[in-house]
Amino acid sequence: MTKISKICCIGAGYVGGPTMSVIAKKCRDIQVTVVDLNEARIAAWNDPDVNNIPVYEPGLGAVVAEARGRNLFFSTEVDKAIDEAEMIFISVNTPTKTYGAGKGQAADLKWIELCARQIARVAKTDKIVVEKSTLPVRTASAIKDILAHTGSGCKFQILSNPEFLAEGTAIEDLNAPDRVLIGGDSTPEGQEAIQALVDIYANWVPRERILTTNIWSSELSKLVANAYLAQRVSSINSISELCEATEADVNEVARAIGADSRIGSKFLKASVGFGGSCFQKDILNLVYIARSYGLEEVADYWEQVILINDHQKRRFAHQIIKSSYNTVSGKKIAFLGWAFKKDTNDTRESAAIYVADHLLFEQAKITVYDPKVPESQVYSDLNYLGSRTSDENRLGVAVVDDPYEACKGAHAIAILTEWDEFKEYDWQRIYDNMNKPANVFDGRNLLDVAKLKEIGFQVKAIGKAC
Ligand code: UDX
Ligand code: ADP
Known about the structure:
Radius of gyration: 23 Å
Distance between the termini: 64 Å
Bound molecules: uridine-5'-diphosphate-xylopyranose, adenosine-5'-diphosphate
């Protein structure tokens, strides 16, 4: 039986960093080395002050502080770590392709392929290679193919072990996962590799929560899990618009349907739209895969989840414009929140970016405050969208580190992220310093509408007719 003593993880991002930190914490006898090409990122992971690590995630700093230097290491020496490890996790980014065939839908696998080629080049002993990144179903066959032709005589087993952690709750999710999924070959060698990974998780995860499947089921399950979750958000968001037209309250509807145990209460929070690095990318991927098998109806069905999400972001921006006498040109709009959800500094696909883009198109002046997102990130998000030049963005967007400053003199405030601290603000003070009528657009159903109205605000919350 293979007993793993050294693990290497390629990619020190939002998945690789937290996941490996928790494995190192739970398995003191395993040396875990996380490598990345990005030197600045690795330097930040090694910062003596754990408040400066590159991923903000509640509880992560303490885990890193405990394990780093003991059996957890962050390094840029990719080859060395690959060479030493018996098990290699691939946790690199797989963004949506921005060029060529499948542009805008398919996953860009160039970083995955690079990793596979690097492992093939460096490895001198047999290895278990674990796909941690979310990948289109059947990617393992490409990795297998690359590794099978190394000529080094080394044997490789490929496993799929998708990560189900959600950002903002990563440490909780990793400590007590609903399930761990491991897919591998049905051959004796495949089963042995699966067992080696099961043994690692079994250090802290109850055995009945570790599911083993064939590799294709594991790869596809990750895409499907995200598609189902995103579908719930798009479903309730579609109902939020109907609520606004009928004076039903989306929170009350969510509570009423969520009490049905067949439906369940989670993922029923209406919002300005889902964001994050997974939902959109994975659904687009599912759509692309379905189309590539000629399954048009299946593709259309899932694509609708994205279309409702785009609509919800646009609709929110239009509400702001409409309530501002149909023009926001030159008006200051304050954004509270830029991250795609609370308790993370990740902004990938955040609804805030798209809402800002719509408003900038109408020449609004936007001032952003987010407790964890730096100014440079806001600008790079807007530039990445490619629809505005960086100079134009800088003219229209300011980023400040004080929420009261952000709201001062604003015509409207838009709540884009559900940070808890927003609830604690002195809203009377904010009101006093705003342009009147002072509008609040609560894209997260976060604030107490009655209280704000008492102060004098005009409030529009997602899914409420107010
Ligand atoms: C998701 C999956 O939950 C996780 O299992 C997977 O591993 C990666 O993708 P994540 O993207 O970190 O995790 O965040 P999640 O909590 O799922 O939220 C995604 C988006 O949906 C956020 O923008 C969030 O604000 C939004 N959302 C979520 C809602 O608008 N309403 C809800 O009820 C829930
Ligand atoms: P995720 O949310 O999936 O963790 P991130 O973008 O946060 O995605 O992290 C992926 C990391 O993988 C990045 O820090 C990137 O520099 C790193 N990476 C990508 N390709 C390679 C590679 N070939 N070798 C080492 N690191 C890589």
